[in-house]
């Protein structure tokens, strides 16, 4: 936004489509609104394919404004923006909309060849690892194994700074995903997932002593987005094998630019039975790695097992898969292209169980063992949410959803290390180890009284009960209440509504979070349970990181009768 308003388009033209982290914005084609583009160019043309299917060209609206397309027919999965200065195309940006039909020229985004992943002849590849991602089969038919946390010296796996602390999430602040197309490869997914960190990020592979070929794969997912920047020296790091630096001053952007595959090959002589890859010196930003391959001329060498996942000893009367790194855009079922478009924040990055969609739910029965003290999350269709085996589970207010717009209620319960868990559904199960962030209670809390919020509708009254002023909705009509907050730093924020529900049924309302530009951050349904004796607190969150700025948190429904709101807290 800053560059769009204050950087010269003669020296540094740029264009950025909002947003690169919203691949499931729409699940169906049709008329869409509020497609925003930030640019300092004179004009921007937006396409619904690779430089084709124009959605119109707009002139720069001036300082403090941004380009916005309204009421346009979006048919395909590509949005492609071109910025013009003095009539000449000088910048471009594109994003993918994963749930929409593939555009006619989609393959123009794909590299013509995939030589970057071509295996070396006469080598025995003993390890291939998708850093920060799940098992992946590339276009050569080779499997890249899911990144796992190393927990046993006789297995391979990764470590990071969280290993120095007790009860922290294993991959906390060291893994991310981009949804952008990746130049220079046909295997985008392998380069879209990545690990990042400093000198405590490392991978360890037990191997016999000898000489090995090590292939390291990189992608710059952040710096350079939108074009118009020289990002040289923004990310610089060394790579070491067994504490000996083999690559100095790696600068991915300087070598290949933004969102493009880069391969580095080195040879290592191992003594001591372990090949360790680390990043001992980080000059700027953080080290980054997308994939690792290790090979040898010795055809007799076999890989050791990976450190175990959080789901052990799965047994079922139907086919199941244990997968890792759960995320939106991931397939929900073994035998279907249906994928998740919405997930509760707690399950991102989790190990999960995937089933066949075609199997009758009533016939499913199985068990698994939890490796650690953990929370088990079960995704269940609304029609099946009262099944007897879920009685020991607690229902979350958050939901899961797929690109067929089917909504799943989410139930959870805590289990002990080594506990056997029984299941009888096929819509998804995730397991998240328990952790303790040791957060202090002195985090600032913004408390807003409901009677001081912006109210819109009929039959809204203000009253007093048990030492508290409150707002009550007294009519079955459309009503809305809006709180405004201004977080000072980017973070995930807790939100708490203090309420009473005087009905004998839960009240469902739409919760929306929008920024100062009207861009939606969260938009879904939450449920206020029956609580008519005393005040109760409903906890939720922003659902992900939000930037510093001004936001409106709105509750709205066609029928909020009987709902009392005393206050709203933002922390």
UniProtKB/TrEMBL annotation:
The keyword Cell division does not apply. The lineage of its organism: Bacteria, Pseudomonadati, Bacteroidota, Flavobacteriia, Flavobacteriales. GO terms for cellular component: membrane. It comes from the Bacteria. Residues 126-294 form the Malectin domain. It is a single-pass type I membrane protein. Residues 34-91 form the DUF4982 domain. GO terms for molecular function: carbohydrate binding. InterPro entries: DUF4982, Galactose-bd-like_sf, Ig-like_fold, Malectin_dom, MLEC. The keyword Nuclease does not apply. Keywords: Carbohydrate metabolism, Endoplasmic reticulum, Glycoprotein, Membrane, Signal, Transmembrane, Transmembrane helix. It is found in: Endoplasmic reticulum membrane. This is Uncharacterized protein. Belongs to the malectin family. It comes from Wenyingzhuangia marina.
């Amino acid at each position: 936004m800053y560059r769009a308003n204050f950087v010269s388009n003669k020296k540094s033209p740029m264009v950025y489509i909002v947003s690169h982290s919203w691949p499931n914005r729409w699940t169906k084609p049709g008329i869409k609104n509020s497609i925003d583009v930030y640019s300092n160019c004179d004009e921007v043309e937006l396409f619904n394919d690779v430089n084709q299917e124009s959605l119109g060209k707009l002139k720069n609206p001036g300082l403090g404004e941004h380009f916005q397309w309204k009421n346009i027919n979006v048919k395909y999965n590509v949005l492609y923006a071109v910025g013009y200065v003095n009539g000449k195309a000088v910048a471009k940006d594109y994003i993918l909309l994963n749930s929409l039909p593939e555009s006619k020229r989609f393959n123009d985004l794909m590299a013509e060849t995939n030589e970057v992943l071509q295996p070396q002849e006469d080598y025995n590849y003993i390890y291939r690892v998708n850093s920060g991602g799940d098992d992946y089969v590339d276009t050569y038919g080779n499997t890249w194994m899911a990144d796992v946390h190393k927990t046993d010296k006789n297995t391979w796996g990764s470590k990071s700074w969280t290993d120095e602390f007790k009860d922290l999430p294993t991959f906390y602040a060291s893994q991310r995903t981009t949804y952008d197309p990746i130049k220079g490869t046909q295997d985008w997914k392998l380069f879209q997932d990545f690990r990042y960190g400093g000198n405590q990020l490392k991978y360890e592979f037990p191997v016999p002593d000898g000489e090995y070929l090590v292939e390291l794969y990189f992608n710059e997912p952040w710096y350079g987005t939108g074009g118009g920047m020289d990002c040289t020296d923004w990310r610089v790091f060394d790579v070491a094998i067994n504490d000996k630096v083999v690559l100095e001053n790696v600068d991915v952007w300087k070598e290949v630019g933004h969102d493009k595959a880069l391969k580095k090959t080195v040879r290592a002589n191992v003594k001591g039975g372990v090949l360790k890859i680390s990043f001992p010196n980080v000059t700027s930003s953080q080290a980054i790695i997308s994939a690792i391959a290790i090979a040898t001329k010795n055809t007799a060498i076999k890989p050791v097992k990976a450190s175990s996942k959080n789901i052990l000893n799965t047994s079922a009367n139907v086919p199941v898969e244990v997968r890792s790194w759960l995320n939106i855009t991931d397939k929900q079922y073994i035998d279907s292209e249906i994928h998740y478009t919405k997930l509760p924040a707690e399950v991102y990055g989790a190990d999960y169980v995937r089933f066949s969609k075609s199997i009758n739910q009533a016939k499913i029965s199985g068990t698994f063992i939890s490796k650690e003290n953990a929370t088990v999350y079960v995704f269940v269709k609304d029609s099946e949410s009262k099944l007897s085996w879920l009685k020991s589970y607690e229902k979350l207010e958050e939901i899961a959803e797929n690109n067929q717009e089917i909504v799943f209620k989410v139930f959870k319960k805590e289990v002990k290390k080594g506990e056997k868990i029984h299941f009888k559904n096929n819509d998804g199960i995730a397991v998240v180890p328990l952790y303790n962030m040791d957060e202090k209670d002195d985090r600032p809390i913004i408390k807003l009284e409901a009677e001081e919020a912006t109210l819109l509708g009929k039959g809204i009254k203000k009253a007093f009960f048990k030492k508290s002023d409150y707002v009550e909705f007294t009519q079955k009509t459309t009503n809305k209440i809006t709180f405004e907050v201004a977080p000072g730093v980017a973070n995930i924020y807790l939100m708490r509504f203090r309420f009473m529900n005087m009905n004998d049924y839960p009240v469902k309302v739409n919760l929306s979070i929008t920024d100062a530009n009207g861009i939606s951050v969260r938009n879904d349904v939450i449920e206020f349970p029956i609580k008519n004796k005393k005040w109760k607190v409903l906890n939720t969150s922003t659902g992900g990181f939000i930037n510093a700025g001004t936001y409106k948190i709105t509750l709205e429904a066609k029928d909020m009768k009987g709902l009392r709101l005393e206050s709203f807290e933002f922390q």
